[in-house]
Amino acid sequence: MARRSTRSTSDHGDWAVPYQxxxxxxxxxxxxxxxxxxxxPPLEAAVQRIVETExxxxxxxxxxxxxxxxxxxxxxxxxxxxxxxxxxxxxxLTDTDGFLDIPGRPCAYARRPLPGLxxxxxxxxxxxxxxxxxxxxxxxxxxxxxxxxxxxxxARFFGWSPTAGRASxxxxxxLYQLRDTGAVTGWPDKLEPGAGR
Length: 197
Prior knowledge:
Blueprint lengths: L15 E3 L21 H15 L2 E2 H14 L8 H9 L4 E3 L2 E3 L8 E3 L14 H14 L6 H11 L9 H14 L3 E2 L6 E2 L4
Parallel strand pairs: 1-5
Antiparallel strand pairs: 2-4, 3-4, 6-7
Helix pairs in contact: 4-5, 4-6, 5-6
């Protein structure tokens, strides 16, 4: 008699981690004078910490986090857009298709929502992270998933409906890209990681 697997649907390899939004407690206490602009070093440090903690992070999510940080520090003005531009220009951050990250950092994890917490919309999950989830699911079950099944599993991983909205279309486009670059073989019925994985 074949032994039944005890692996649960939420049990994935080390590529899968819970999504935890960045929380930066406060700006540098030396910036307490609220009548002057925030000095550039503490603002740069706050920007850097948010991106280090949550990158790749969608620009809208990043702006929301920074606005919350500024509000908690008693500042009700918008943060200075030039700070982010300068960090990108200096090569300390990257801005790729609206996603901010640390230069040269590979996307090693896909982040799933914790039960009861807000799911990120598909537009707020970087293509590299969606592709990491697809590859992770394929690595977990090589030659056992079809393209359609891995897209469905990835949608569920991120907490999205596999039949509604834009998630499935974006995930399938990501899977095509993985296929076209050789990262995935066995198309379309018995997917497995490519030789270089």
